[in-house]
Amino acid sequence: MDNNAETIEGQVLDFLDLTTAIVSAYVSKNSVRPGDMPDLLASVHAALTGLGRGAPAEAPTPQKLTPAQIRKSITPDALISFIDGKPYKTLKRHLTGAGLTIEQYRERFGLPRDYPSTAASYSEARSALAKSFGLGQQRKKAAPKPAQPVDTVSDKPKRAAGRPRKAKEAAEG
């Protein structure tokens, strides 16, 4: 049997034929530099042979980012994602779509713990909006009550609160 062929459920799979079919379909819809073709062919072939052996294909480990790359990813208007290179005002929804939390994202790319998850201009706009609504301010203390005048003694005792007395005429009848 050929080195590049394997039998699965009675069918012979030729990894070279599969590799050429996959790469030709990919190249027909995507632009690939001629110098990148050997690497593309090798990586597709390695992935197919790895699948045939049942061994999981190794995920490429992201490279450690330099401090300059980290600084360039933080702009006043947006944060540049290290996943897809696109700018975002907030990373929360983008990372959730990628199945990550902000902590996992920081760990995956070796980012510092104080790496922001929202753009500075976005945070400032939200802060200004909240302050315009009066949020974030301490409540004002109640004005002190004025001193009450001393009660004067009157000749009549105060009536007890409650139901008024019945009229005399109604009581006599």
From TrEMBL:
<dbReference type="GO" id="GO:0003677">
    <property type="term" value="F:DNA binding"/>
</dbReference>
<dbReference type="InterPro" id="IPR041920">
    <property type="entry name" value="ROS/MUCR_sf"/>
</dbReference>
<dbReference type="InterPro" id="IPR008807">
    <property type="entry name" value="ROS_MUCR"/>
</dbReference>
<dbReference type="Pfam" id="PF05443">
    <property type="entry name" value="ROS_MUCR"/>
</dbReference>
<protein>
    <submittedName>
        <fullName>Predicted transcriptional regulator</fullName>
    </submittedName>
</protein>
<feature type="region of interest" description="Disordered">
    <location>
        <begin position="133"/>
        <end position="173"/>
    </location>
</feature>
<dbReference type="GO" id="GO:0006355">
    <property type="term" value="P:regulation of DNA-templated transcription"/>
</dbReference>
<comment type="similarity">
    <text>Belongs to the ros/MucR family.</text>
</comment>
<dbReference type="GO" id="GO:0008270">
    <property type="term" value="F:zinc ion binding"/>
</dbReference>
